[in-house]
Design brief:
By secondary structure, the chain is α/β, with parallel strands linked by helices. It has 5 helices and 4 strands; from the N terminus they run E-H-E-H-H-E-H-E-H. Helix content is 39%, strand content 14%. Strands 1-2-3-4 form a 4-stranded parallel sheet.
């Protein structure tokens, strides 16, 4: 039996920085590609970062993988990523780090998704 048959979700964190590798996308049953915030925080003004994000999102989708952007702190960046087709976002715009009891309340209130503007 394969890991994806068991509904196990595997994500690559900090994609595009550090030790992440394209080889992981090819050899492992990846479900989520978490694009490093070093590109996200330069949006929307940095054309190079925008091109890298667009390429990473497109690559993920062509491989059947969802793309998540890390470090989303403004609605402007959130909307920009939505326009690129990014599937998910994580960052201070959605919520700052919370103690466990506050997180549980937040999660139940929004069903685990940032829904104020419809989500990505």
């Amino acid at each position: 039996m394969r890991l994806d048959d068991l509904k196990i979700i595997i994500s690559i964190d900090d994609f595009g920085a550090g030790y992440s590798s394209l080889q992981y996308l090819h050899r492992l049953p990846i479900s989520l590609l978490k694009i490093d915030q070093c590109f996200v925080r330069r949006l929307p003004g940095d054309a190079g970062a925008a091109h890298i994000l667009e390429a990473a999102i497109t690559l993920a989708h062509k491989m059947g993988i969802q793309a998540i952007a890390e470090g989303v702190e403004t609605l402007e960046v959130y909307d920009f990523l939505s326009g690129l087709g990014c599937d998910l976002a994580q960052g201070y715009l959605m919520s700052k780090p919370l103690p466990a009891d506050e997180y549980t309340r937040w999660y139940q209130q929004c069903n685990g998704r940032y829904a104020c503007w419809g989500g990505l």
